[in-house]
Amino acid sequence: MIRFKNYFNSWLYEKNGYYTNYKKIGKDGDFYTSVSTSKFFGGAIAKKIISLYDEGFLKEDSLIVEIGAEKGYLIADIIEFLYTLKPNLLKKFRFIIIEKFEEIENLQKEYLQKSFGKFIKFEFYENINELKKYHKNSSFIYSNEIFDSFSCDLIYTKNDILNLAFIENNKIKFIPNEDENVFKYSQKYGIKKGEVPNYKEFIDSICTIFDKFFFLTFDYGQDFARDDFSIRVYKNHKVYSIFEDDFDFKEFFQNSDITYDVNFLYLIDCFKDNNIENITYQTQARTLVDFGIIELLEILKANCDEKSFQKELQKAKLLFDTKTFGERFKTLQVKKG
Questions:
Q1: Per-residue confidence of the chain (337 residues) as pLDDT tens digits?
Q2: Using CA atoms, how far apart are residues 156 and 176, in angstroms rounded to an integer?
Q3: Residue 68, Ramachandran bin (φ over 0: left; ψ between -120 and 50: alpha; else beta)
Q4: Which of 18, 57, 129, 169 falls between 20 and 30 A from 4, CA-CA?
Q5: 180: left (phi over 0), alpha (psi -120 to 50) or beta
Q6: How many other C-beta atoms can be found within 10 angstroms of the C-beta atom of residue 218?
Q7: CA 297/CA 301 separation, integer angstroms
């Protein structure tokens, strides 16, 4: 018998785990992301980086840090737009990727080498705690869909008794358990069933390591804890519930993506526990507009033929579509210093 949060971690990150080697994303993968949809996702982030530099928040020798960079497409898109909009910044910033798996890091290095050669120097670290040496550098830290992959407990309260999920013989079981942290979470956020994640240690590290940072993350979820299960499995763009009677854990384990909705209120509380109050939570669509994606599309329209513009516009529209990314996906922007 194994506690579900440990099983979840093994599913994604331990030997042969789903994320321990590169998975295709997009049409030929199990799911889409904003990165696989349009380069203008990275372009909007690049425009935000420029605005933070222009206002004096980011300085020379600032860190641009991506956590969980997949193959490196997003950081490459950001650099491409920085080169187009303000190329002098490329020599002022340090570009860093946090990647715990060697195989994926090697793929990132290969892709970025093909894309930029020796023009851009990248630094790779296994853990964000290794960046303590840069604590005085102002930093722009970002991630796309990482909090939905943090391991979580599953709880179910019956007759006022808190039960935790365990896996035994490829079946899910809820067993009474008095884990103090899980109990506190369920009480604070008023849930009797659902996921109990733990982002706190990771957020505490960011807040402790960096004296001055802008943190940006995109993920699906809401600013409250759902009093229900959102955990699900993606395989070949199909969604499966682990609570269906015919769901076979053995069949899906480590060869499909398992995920759940992010409780952004909990994320916000983790930053507030570190005495940070400059926090903005909103939809992905609103954030991309605020960052300047419309202006970027107007620049494209003025500098290319109509056919090319319409092709890129249709892809960019998916970032705003209420049925795909625009409203379902949320962002958190956190500023310290």
A1: 999 999 999 999 998 899 887 655 545 444 456 787 889 999 999 999 999 999 999 999 999 999 988 889 999 999 999 999 999 999 999 999 999 999 999 999 999 999 999 899 999 999 999 999 999 999 999 999 999 999 999 999 988 899 999 999 999 999 998 899 999 999 999 999 999 999 999 999 999 999 999 999 999 999 999 899 999 999 987 999 999 988 999 999 999 999 999 999 999 999 999 999 999 999 999 999 999 999 999 999 999 999 998 998 998 888 887 776 757 899 999 999 9
A2: 9
A3: left
A4: 129
A5: alpha
A6: 24
A7: 6
Residue 73 token pair? 């497409």
Burial class of residue 244 (count of CB atoms within 10 Å of its CB; 0-12, 13-18, 19+): exposed
Tell me the C-alpha distance between 138 and 156, whole Å: 43
Give me the helices (H) in the chain, please. Answer: 4-12, 34-37, 40-54, 73-85, 102-116, 180-188, 200-209, 249-252, 264-272, 284-291, 293-303, 306-317
Q: Would the pTM of this model clear 0.85, i.e. be above it?
A: yes
Cβ-contact 123, 95 below 8 angstroms: yes
Q: Which two tokens stand for residue 223?
A: 């600013």
How far the first Cα of the chain sits from its last, in Å, is: 46
- Long-range contact pairs involving 5-12 (C-beta distance under 8 Å, separation at least 24): 5/151, 5/152, 5/153, 6/151, 7/167, 8/151, 8/152, 8/258, 9/151, 10/254, 11/253, 11/254, 11/258, 12/149, 12/151, 12/254, 12/258
